[in-house]
């Protein structure tokens, strides 16, 4: 005895498994040294593996954690040492790693045009 499955019902079932088209895939969109425009997507992630740095902002979109560029510029990815405050409730997850140095990956955007709003105080 065989189960008859029409091709139409299989296609309807497959469409339920596909992610919605308007949600971007998870991962890194821009690598170190690439030129980005304002509001370009740098990273899409489920957990906070990558953190926003200079000229990068965090956006929460339907459970997806997005990092976007705040201005036009060049992407720089850095690894920075962090010292979590274990008094904060959310940081107690890192309490078992208090004897080990913790590092975080940050995405930075170096602006293409630097502002002219500063004054030269001291010449070398």
UniProtKB/TrEMBL annotation:
Gene3D superfamilies: 2.40.50.100
One MF term in the entry's GO annotations: structural constituent of ribosome
A Pfam family matched in the record: Ribosomal_L27
GO BP annotations listed: translation
Listed GO CC annotations: ribosome
InterPro entries reported in the protein's UniProt record: Ribosomal_bL27
Protein name: Uncharacterized protein
Organism: Caenorhabditis brenneri (Nematode worm)
